Amino acid sequence: MLTLLNEIVRRTRQHHAIEHATIHLLSSRNKSVRLSGLSDPTGFVIYGGVEEEEVRQAVGDALLRLQAGEKTLAIHPNCGTNLVTTALLTTFAALLATSGKRRTVADKFGLALPMMLVAIVVSKPLGLYFQEYTTLADVSDRWVVDVSSQKVGRVVATRVTFE
Question: Global pTM?
Answer without folding.
Answer: 0.90
